[in-house]
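Is this the right way to post structure tokens for a design question? Let me know if I should format differently. Anyway, here goes:
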């Protein structure tokens, strides 16, 4: 069953005074350019447009984004990822050192690093604005291989938890590597946490390319509508609709993962924690008006991973 005290109350989203546990993250690493457009909505653009706005380039990607937040909770954090071999590679390694994150990067000789561009338009009606994320097709992370993962078996086995995400499912090569990492972790007794992204994965992959990974995980984080669509069900919004989804998850996925199901107006406001044969626990995530959305999901996930490992009833 899930712990009775939600992670937003303890350990809290800001971090913890006593950092514990070792976390190894498999995911994307690259360079991201971010900007928010203060003067335009995407729907209003009908011609070329020039905006002056705060813009920054940073080392990012799913693995780095989570690692950056996880250092506030975990004693040791490491990243296992495949990167390119260009002028950005030392920048990426330098940022991991600055964060205090162990570098387990695999470098693909001669390949460029992945680059993403994230634009957010002017807020409308009090909302955060729409996000446009453009990601380089076929970044190096899609070519992380099973042998490269198995070569890191000692690092995986030495971690208290292995965290991975669904972007690795988008390529058959990295999907096989992800499965190899999960099986290596399970053989070593290392719990596996899996974040089911992208949130439209159901439109990108058939269920049989996704569900096997969910069966290998000990904890699954997902927006409830994503899982519902993957199972061919209507997307839930209210809590009772999310609870009606739980028996379908039990039927579709083997094992007893702890599900952390996000839902609400933007699928981020509340979570139901549930494990087969246990009582669901519902809690607010802390997200709402005035809260910066960028990075919030990683802050929440880092706190939840620490909370989960700290509770014998949750990790069992």
């Amino acid at each position: 069953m899930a712990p009775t005290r939600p992670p937003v109350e303890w350990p809290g989203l800001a971090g913890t005074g006593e950092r514990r546990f070792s976390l190894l993250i498999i995911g994307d690493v690259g360079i991201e350019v971010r900007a928010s457009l203060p003067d335009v909505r995407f729907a209003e653009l009908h011609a070329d447009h020039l905006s002056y706005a705060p813009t920054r380039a940073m080392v990012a990607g799913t693995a780095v984004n989570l690692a950056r937040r996880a250092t506030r909770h975990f004693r040791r954090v490491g990243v296992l990822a495949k990167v390119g071999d260009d002028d950005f590679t030392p920048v990426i390694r330098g940022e991991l050192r600055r964060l205090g994150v162990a570098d387990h990067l695999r470098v693909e000789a001669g390949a460029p690093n992945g680059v993403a561009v994230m634009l957010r338009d002017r807020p409308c009606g009090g909302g955060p604005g729409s996000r446009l994320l453009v990601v380089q097709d076929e970044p190096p992370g899609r070519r992380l291989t099973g042998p490269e993962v198995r070569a890191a078996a000692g690092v995986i086995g030495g971690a208290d938890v292995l965290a991975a995400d669904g972007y690795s499912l988008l390529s058959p090569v990295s999907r096989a590597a992800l499965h190899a990492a999960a099986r290596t972790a399970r053989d070593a007794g290392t719990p596996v946490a899996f974040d089911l992204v992208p949130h439209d994965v159901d439109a990108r992959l058939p269920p049989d390319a996704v569900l096997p990974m969910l069966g290998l995980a000990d904890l699954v984080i997902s927006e409830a509508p994503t899982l519902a669509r993957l199972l061919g069900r209507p997307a839930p919004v209210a809590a009772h609709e999310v609870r009606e989804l739980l028996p379908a998850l039990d039927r579709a996925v083997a094992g007893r993962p702890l599900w952390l199901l996000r839902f609400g107006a933007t699928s981020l406001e509340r979570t139901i924690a549930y494990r087969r044969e246990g009582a669901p626990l519902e809690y607010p995530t802390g997200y709402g008006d005035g809260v910066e959305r960028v990075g919030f999901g990683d802050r929440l996930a880092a706190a939840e991973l620490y909370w989960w490992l700290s509770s014998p009833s949750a990790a069992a």
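Format looks fine. Someone answered above. Worth noting: Residues 215 and 254 are 5 Å apart (CA to CA). The chain is about 30% helix and 25% strand.
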